[in-house]
Amino acid sequence: MPRRAVDGPPGLPSPPPPGASALPPGTFAGTVVLVTGGGTGLGKAVAAEFARLGADLVIASRKEDRLAAARDELAALGGRVTAAACDIRDPLRVAEVFDAAEEAHGLPDVLVNNAAANFPVPSEDMSPNAWRSVVDATLNGTFYMTREFGRRHLAARTPGSVINVGASYAWTGGPGFAHSAAAKAGVKSLVESLAVEWGPYGIQVNGLVPGLMPHDDMTEDIRGNLDRAHDKDARQPALRVGRPRELGWAATFLASPYARFITGHTLVVDGANWQRRALVSPPVVTVREQLGRGPFAE
Ligand SMILES: CCCCCCCCC/C=C/C(=O)SCCNC(=O)CCNC(=O)[C@H](O)C(C)(C)COP(=O)(O)OP(=O)(O)OC[C@H]1O[C@@H](n2cnc3c(N)ncnc32)[C@H](O)[C@@H]1OP(=O)(O)O
Ligand SMILES: NC(=O)C1=CN([C@@H]2O[C@H](COP(=O)(O)OP(=O)(O)OC[C@H]3O[C@@H](n4cnc5c(N)ncnc54)[C@H](OP(=O)(O)O)[C@@H]3O)[C@@H](O)[C@H]2O)C=CC1
What we know:
Elements: E1 32-36, H1 41-52, E2 56-61, H2 64-75, E3 81-85, H3 91-104, E4 110-113, H4 128-156, E5 160-165, H5 169-172, H6 178-198, E6 203-210, H7 220-229, H8 244-255, E7 266-269, H9 287-290
Parallel strand pairs: 1-2, 1-4, 2-3, 4-5, 5-6, 6-7
The structure holds ligand 8Z2 and NADPH dihydro-nicotinamide-adenine-dinucleotide phosphate.
């Protein structure tokens, strides 16, 4: 396997090129996959891997222009793609999206809860509405989508697979991202509760945690945080960041027939960054300082 020729340690090898797949061609033929936030970034990368393996797609998020562009890109990979404008914070709209999906393709077999909201902010500066908007989209939206998926499969007596995209600060806490970390901890807990509740009905519920995987669609808030922190290749134990397709490959495996006995598990795809410890503790830098903010004043 080719490795970088460098004087220092080489880091983890690069992944196979875009378009490669570990699963047999057609693994998801006849399968419908619903991806929230499937019009951008990691959601689009996950949707693309399912499409390459034969799936029909439903992508759902708020902004119709981005959804339409992604629909055309994804349709070029093979299957039929439906774009559904939806704010997942609205349970009535969530139900309508499932109605539309059923009408166009049949009940989705796989649900990827990828949509989320986030921005870095010191907790003392966070307004109640800022907290609410992140927790509503990330945790409540994930529950509304999952509930709708589960109810319909239970009624139809059909199996299904749910994948909740998380973040490793669900375990560690996330200073500067307290709202998102609390919401992702809730999302991880849902995986564990629902895998047991719905296992008897044939519904798998797993979590999938990306490490740092930069992409062109990142919001200015998140991109600004990466740029400010220089949090890139050299700061990762792998000596590289993740590629969005690496998350897509993991998602297709978890939803595939080869992972039928895996449920209630959260798979971390981050080159061990979240396990990182040093022999000597690094200096403490407050979140305010990291974000370049002055002292707190009421
Ligand atoms: C540790 C490991 C490292 C790891 C390194 C980093 C990687 C972390 C992992 C990444 C995890 C992710 O989830 S990345 C996914 C990020 N993608 C997204 O967030 C896409 C969707 N985002 C959005 O739509 C917007 O950015 C967002 C603000 C969240 C929601 O928009 P809405 O239209 O719902 O709401 P708005 O009305 O604009 O704003 C709602 C309130 O939030 C406040 N608000 C908005 N931006 C704010 C900001 N930067 N700072 C303070 N407050 C803010 C507003 O002032 C409002 O409060 P009031 O003024 O009081 O009304
Ligand atoms: N990129 C990374 O390095 C990491 C990402 N993650 C996780 O990966 C997932 C994808 O993140 P990423 O691709 O980077 O971010 P993006 O900002 O590209 O994706 C977020 C998606 O969610 C959609 N969305 C946001 N709010 C709502 C809402 N209320 N209703 C419906 N859709 C919504 C957005 O579309 P629209 O605006 O059109 O609604 C967008 O497509 C998230 O769960 C994130 O927490 C975790 C760790 C690291």
